[in-house]
Amino acid sequence: MLRVLAAPFTVAAPSGARIRDRLKDLTVVDVKVLALVGEHLGRHQRADLAVRVRIGNVPAKQTGRAGRKKRLTALSSSRWAGAMTRASEDQYQLSMRCLADERAGLRRRIRKIGQRLAVACGQKHGRVRGYADRAERWQKQRHLSKLEARLVVVEQQIEHGRPAITLGGRRLAGTRHHLAEAGLTEADWRKRWAAARLFLTADGESGAPHGNYTITVDPEDGSVTLVLPEPLRYLANAPRGRYRLACTVTFHHRHAEWLDRVSANRAVRYDIVHDAARDRWYLDASWSTSTPVVPTPEEIRASGAKLLAVDLNADHLAAIVLDPHGNPVGEPRTIPLELTGSTTTRDGRLRAAITRLIAVAHDNGCPAIVIENLGFADARATGRETMGRGRGGKAFRRTVAGIPTARFRERLSSMAHHQGLAVIAVDPAYTSIWGGTYWKRPLQQQTKTIVTRHHGASVAIGRRGLGHRIRRRPGVTAPDQRIGRRRATGQAVSLARPRGTTGPPRTAGTPHQGGKTRPCRSGQLVLFPDLEDRSRGHRAPTGPVREELANIGQLPQEW
């Protein structure tokens, strides 16, 4: 039984912006001052977070933020204290949401394993299959006990409101015990650990000089100044307890937007970040933007424009352009997507692939790009139980884990919005299966490019975004290939049928001309006129065709 498909929707435009520039030519004194300020503020912010965790999951008015901020003000400044308490609250709420997600995932995994354990080895009860042998069953019982123990711990943490938070990163903390495998020395690890625990974040403030009083960037000369905490005021080299860095920043990317905000004294948040691996300092600027009203899928369809449909895969993007009627236009396109290397390298390659997609959309006059609303959240949470077993299952799980579904949609929606394009997300159910079944062969018949099932899936995605059915209608005209090319699809709009009947069977190619439908007579739907007289030599239908005829009462008694 097919599940109910979710309606297509337009992905919301980004509600904020973040840009980065490197702090070049810092002096030794500048680096020392930044490290002292970051360590001082980071130490007190971690202490404030510990206090917030001990308070537990209570309403916002009962967290005692005003008192905590007052104590931190004496150790830093009022604005630094506000940023620290805000960061503590954000970190706490994020950790509680992660615990809730982990609890839901553990429950799904425990329920799925319990269902399979209830079936004997090598047998099947309904749609639930037991484990292959007793050895696998025993391993699953052990794994189930571990999951249940972990679930008890998570539920206790949620009940008491005490999440486990590692400032600096749990992965980096675990690397301390595996320095040889990570290729680090103890000194290198301590540098990265200290850099990850610095706190140099200043929230923006509308009306303040250039949008931020704590960390200020002058748009005239690009100079950077910051307020020193009270115990470190003796390091000031500028009036009013401030320190001026020797370097300047420019913000080449989205410079005009940043300049408009700081010139109007609108709020801009700044973060000073230290990359210990490359020994570089960066300044990040971020601000919120007004959320624009994006067009709905119905409005985009009404415009009668073409759409670019994209199927995301682990190593490439399969794309094709569709006209308003759901017919493929032009050649299927394959854009390589190599997601190896460091995080920065992978992100750069993903941006390059999205840039090529946007160029294809502009070249074909497409106002929107259609993608799948992928998440794999349930599959990742359930794990091996629903993603195969053995060597094939392991390879499939690795492939699913490597597909950047969330990052791709975020990057695509942001970059497409700035290029004047909309992004439509559709339900991903059955797109690969139906696309490969009904569209791979027709696409290959009209091009010399090698067509894969992923190109067929992109057609299915685009047709779903246009509101059409994925499967092709029978009775598609096929002119002589010597004087005309075979059409890839037939009429996109469904014809009205008598109430209580079903549609004709769909086929992957052009159906036989002798078996086309004909107009209804006396309120009856005759699917195959040749079947009315068995003397013509036709064989009795089998499989889905026979079931279809039997359902609507068109199957002769002798068959």
Molecular structure report:
With 559 residues, this protein is of the alpha+beta class. It folds into three domains: 16-288, no CATH class; 297-465, Nucleotidyltransferase, domain 5 (2-Layer Sandwich), CATH 3.30.420; 513-551, no CATH class. The chain has helices at residues 28-55, 65-73, 78-117, 134-160, 170-175, 179-182, 186-196, 255-263, 297-302, 343-363, 377-382, 390-402, 405-418, 431-438, 440-445, 453-465, 543-551; strands at 9-10, 16-22, 124-125, 128-129, 201-202, 215-217, 223-227, 242-248, 269-275, 280-288, 307-312, 316-322, 328-336, 368-372, 422-426. A hairpin with a 4-residue loop joins strand 9 (269-275) and strand 10 (280-288). It is globular, with a radius of gyration of 31 Å. The two termini are 27 Å apart.
Summed up:
With 559 residues, the chain is α+β, with helices and mostly antiparallel strands. 41% of the residues lie in helices and 14% in strands.
Which terms would index this structure?
Nucleotidyltransferase, domain 5; 3 domains; four-stranded antiparallel β-sheet; alpha+beta; 559 residues; six-stranded mixed β-sheet
Overall geometry comes to globular
β-strand percent reads 5-15%
Quaternary status: single chain
Taking the alpha carbons of the first and last residues, their distance comes to: 27 Å
Describe the main β-sheet briefly. Answer: 6 strands, mixed
Total E-strand runs: 15
Number of helices: 17
**Low-pLDDT sequence parts:** 475-495, 505-538
**Backbone CA Rg:** 31 Å
Reading side by side through the largest sheet, how are the strands ordered? 1-15-14-11-12-13
The computed structural class is alpha+beta
How many structural domains can be distinguished in the coordinates? Answer: 3
**Helix residue percentage:** 40-55%
Question: What is the overall pLDDT average?
Answer: 84
